[in-house]
Amino acid sequence: MEHSNHKAKLLGELRIRGEERDEVEGGTGSRTRWIIGGIAAALIAVVAGALLMWRGQAIAVEVAVTAPPSTSVGNAPILQATGYVTARREATASAQITGTLAAVLIEEGEHVTEGQVLARLDDTSQLASLAQAEAQLHAAQALQGQYEAQLEQARRDVQRDEELVGEAVSQQALDTARTQVRTYAAQVESQRRQVELAGAQVTGAKVQLEYCTIKAPFTGVITAKAAQPGEIVSPMSAGGGFTRTGVGTIVDMDSLEIDVDVNEAYIHRVTPGHPAEAVLDAYLDWNIPAHVIAIVPTADRSKGTVKVRIAIDQKDPRILPDMGVRVSFLEQAPATATRGSARGVLVPGSAVVDRAGKSVVFTVEGERAHARTVTAGERFGDLRLVEGIQSGIRVVRTPGPDLTDGARISIARKS
Hints:
By secondary structure, the chain is α+β, with helices and mostly antiparallel strands.
């Protein structure tokens, strides 16, 4: 009995020591796993940070637009005014007759060329009228042929009677034959007039048929579609809103210009040909070279303003009719910076920086800035003449030392 108790005691001690060893080994394994997990998390954080640094944070920059030496972009404005983009050539395409639309072949935003078919009216009635007029013409021409044949026969009879008069033909018969010739000649002349009238009716029917086709009066862009197939179109409004007066509006984008209202107290500062700079409300970071076309010789007494027409020197698809715009009238360009006396383009003087001993300008292409080596020339106030880039492109106004070729940028809007 005592031996059995001793044996059980030894077995219990062995079990307790085994459990203690397992606890020690389990704790060591758990700590190892925590250490490995922490190292992995740190590596992931480092890789993510490196990836963010590789992508690069966008650098906020201001931009300017290069301009030819004939403008004064960048000079201090002497006067500012607001207005809208307008089209000098705009038309509503309509039919010259009243009819029902059979097809409308245009959509908003579509480019059309002069003479292109925009819509067609139902021409059933016009085709029937044309067919009737042509039939009348053919009938008149056939009757004219009949009268001409009778006239020819009467002339031959007169000639024969003249040879036999006094022998087999009496003088009375000869006179009757001559009268018949004159009668047939008059009928032929009358029928010739009828043929001309029938021909004119055919021409008129063709014109009416042509009116069923509505064509573009000039090359431009469709800005509004005003009618659908099945609606009635008329050159005159019938009232009640059931009749359309046009099928669409066409704008010649090459005729876009700017109309601004200038306070009459400052209109003496503006002259035709005066350099200007336009900024669209939709693109505040885009400076558009412009100049004064004319000052409209009338004033608005209610507003105390005078309308001034501004030409856009650089056309762009982003410029749309009725856009709001702010125009700055600039100081006249220096005499030495006129067209033909200087080569290159004008950029802000701060846009030209030194990189590795070379004069560099950073051009803006999408969300990246690209370094372009240029040949820097003389200065004109805040501007500098450079060669190596084209006119009308955007450049970084003041590149910082951290700006490199291909760097991501964000354009800072002007306040």
